[in-house]
Design goal:
Blueprint: E1 2-11, E2 14-24, E3 29-33, H1 40-47, E4 55-60, E5 63-64, E6 76-79, H2 91-101, H3 106-119, H4 135-147, E7 153-157, H5 165-180, E8 184-189, H6 192-198, E9 201-206, E10 209-215, H7 216-224, H8 229-242
Parallel strand pairs: 3-8, 3-9, 6-7, 7-8
Antiparallel strand pairs: 1-2, 1-4, 4-5, 9-10
Helix pairs in contact: 2-3
Length: 243
């Protein structure tokens, strides 16, 4: 579904994304794990065309993407770490705007909006101004916007931050089912427990570089051998800091 090859992005002397390569297939929930400042958000913004890569390429559904293209975005549901809203709109008005931007057929707009408002327990808040939404409600609205239009690929940046336990459980369960039906997810976080239980594969980023790529079978074997994903992650980071 998405293939990234030697992608690089710098800001002055900072190598925010430093030659990252990996791919994610249909049916795969791929976690992007790393501490704050590891390059996760910069990577996602580059994939979404919000930043222009210095070099490297990426392909979505076997199509190479050039900076400035927009058509490919219709196949992607993107929830940024810090979503931007029009606070003078209501939640329902904002989702209507997103449906129009995604060219979702008018006959499907109301049905989809009401479905995701109900999914995230926002139906009763749909006609309130976004300016009055809490952080958690804003996160739910951002995810609702990303999921409109049945995208084939989801790019979710710290997507569970600020969610209450019920909503967090619900969206993680839904993501698992979404992948079982052939969808693909890039899910970034700095919380190890989330990717450990949710993801099929983990890409470890640190200071803009990919340090490791682990399959679920590997961290399951670590647990059986008396260690853990957390311990192996910390060992990897500590080794990197000593170099």
């Amino acid at each position: 579904m998405i293939e990234i090859l030697d992608l690089k992005k710098t800001f002055g002397t900072i190598r925010a994304v430093d030659g990252i390569s990996f791919s994610a297939m249909k049916g795969e929930l791929c976690g992007i794990l790393g501490p704050n400042g590891s390059g996760k958000t910069t990577l996602f913004k580059t994939l979404m065309g919000l930043l222009e890569a210095d070099s490297g390429t990426f392909r979505i559904a076997d199509t190479s993407i050039t900076y400035g293209e927009t058509d490919y975005k219709s196949a992607i549901g993107y929830a940024p770490e810090e979503p931007v809203f029009f606070d003078y709109l209501t939640g329902r008005q904002f989702l209507n705007f997103i449906c129009a931007a995604k060219n979702i057929a008018l006959e499907n707009t109301v049905k989809q909006i009401e479905h995701w408002l109900a999914f995230f327990d926002l139906t009763g808040k749909g006609d309130e101004l976004i300016a009055n939404y809490s952080q958690g409600m804003r996160r739910k609205l951002s995810l609702s916007a990303a999921l409109l239009g049945d995208p084939a690929l989801l790019i979710l940046d710290e997507a569970t931050n600020g969610l209450d336990p019920e909503s967090s459980f619900r969206i993680k369960s839904w993501l698992r089912e979404y992948c079982n039906q052939g969808g693909a997810v890039l899910f970034s976080t700095h919380i190890i427990e989330i990717v450990e239980h949710l993801c099929d594969r983990i890409i470890v980023l640190y200071r803009g570089q990919k340090l490791a790529e682990w399959q679920r079978s590997e961290w399951q074997a670590w647990r059986q051998n008396g260690t853990s994903l957390e311990a192996e992650f910390m060992r990897l980071i500590e080794a990197q800091n000593k170099e």
